[in-house]
Design goal:
This protein is of the alpha/beta class. The protein folds into 3 domains: about 30 residues, no CATH class; about 280 residues, Type I PLP-dependent aspartate aminotransferase-like (Major domain) (Aspartate Aminotransferase, domain 2), CATH 3.40.640.10; about 100 residues, Aspartate Aminotransferase, domain 1 (Alpha-Beta Complex), CATH 3.90.1150.10. The protein is built from 17 helices and 14 strands. The protein has a 7-stranded mixed sheet with strand order 3-9-8-7-6-4-5, with helices on both faces. Strands 10-11-14-13 form a 4-stranded antiparallel sheet. β8 and β9 form a beta hairpin. α2 packs antiparallel against α5. The longest helix has 24 residues. It is globular, with a radius of gyration of 24 Å. The chain starts with a helix and ends with a helix. The relative contact order is 0.13. One of its GO terms (biological process) is gamma-aminobutyric acid catabolic process. This is (S)-3-amino-2-methylpropionate transaminase. Belongs to the class-III pyridoxal-phosphate-dependent aminotransferase family. GO terms for molecular function: 4-aminobutyrate:2-oxoglutarate transaminase activity; pyridoxal phosphate binding. Its cofactor is pyridoxal 5'-phosphate.
Length: about 500
Amino acid sequence: MSTQLLKQFHTHKTLGCVSQQLRAAWSCYSTASLAEPQAPSVKTAVPGPKSNALKADLDNIQNTDVVRFFVDYDRSAGNYIVDVDGNVMLDLMTQIASIPLGYNHPKIIKTLTDPANLSTFANRPSLGMHPPSDFGINISKTLLSVAPPGMDQVTTMACGACSVENALKAAFMAYRRRERGGKPPSQEEIQSSLRNTPPGCPKLSALSFQNAFHGRTMGALALTHTKWVHKLDFPSPDWPIATFPYLKYPLEDYVEENKAEEAKCLAEVEDKIASAKKSGQPVACIAVEPVQCEGGDNYASPQFFQGLQDICQKAGIALLLDEVQTGAGATGKFWVHEHFHLRDPPNLVTFAKKMLTGGFYYTSDMRPTEGGRIFNTWMGDPGKVVLLKAVLEVIKEDNLLTRTEDTGKYMLQTLLEAQSKYPSILSRARGLGALAAIDFPDGATRDKLVDKLCHKGVHVGVCGSRTMRLRSTLTLEKKHVDVFSDRFHAALKEI
């Protein structure tokens, strides 16, 4: 369908005045799908001249230091991303792990172009006050249909950071309700809260972990400890920070050492909680990622997370599992914490990225008891929920959880084989489903390899100080892994 025809379509005020010819053309467009490229094809340096020109233009109005290249999304398809210079790359970073089905998936295109969804996409309501009539039904069919086991409460948000931010607020509110014994807040609490002083604004804290990343808004940022660019110049509460386990690999060779490492970290968590209570700023919540992604793809065992839950329950505080990057079927189960076999559901689970909408699940004791306590203008977007419905249908129809688990094992084996061949360069290969990572001797060596991979047509990411990370879609196949493997080995030979 031509650009001019698309413009014609969008300038009509109502569907009723669109000609039959235009309707037919639009129908063809909505059901068409781009063919996924068969292999990478790199024609220029990355970024190329067109990307550099666009970057220079954009830099006139905003800082573009982290812009890597500009994308031709009309030509990107499946697991391949195409930049404006025509370079075709296998995308193993997928917009920071946020693309569930690949680019221009036909099911998504069909949903977007379905006239029945026109009102949903044309109108963005304030969901907390004026939700559309079908919002409850759509939430039940989507978010609640894949809710973490044992959880039946959910609130949508716009992004991962605001999901964490509001989950924290829910934890603090629940903690104070217990302290009041269920009584309403006093007038002193109400009035002092408007002055940012106790007792209305109590001295409470949330415990987080070194190398954690939970977002860039101010509350979530207080839990984030990865890069100085995230933190510098911003005031932050003095909340406790514990050590996250650093496991030795291969895991089967270091069972006792890793057990000792996790036990030490759990003991430190208990000490931090006790110290915070003694100092008059008790911990109301522990926030933790099931896999520390931005901080270096750091894993811990199910026993570690079971121990964290035991500590939380003993201390009467909330356990917040941040599944923003790890959820939505990325590991063969819909939520990573399902691998942990927790005795009870966590109190709060945040989500975003592959879920297309942000938000958080919570247990009933975390539910606000007054209106407007968890609130903003939009509280998400019903259009994203409609798109999520299409994603969940594809996941079920194409059995993508099983495929992701299977392809993930194949990818991990590929990394292990490369590690065995290049032991002086590669170490600590690890992964679970669509999450995979491997370490280099230092950041400079890693960055050199990542750059060479890019110029061979494979786009990957980095995390931590020396880790290369892979974040594929749920539709990745073994043939894509083979493409990565060929180019990975070629790049390794060159360094």
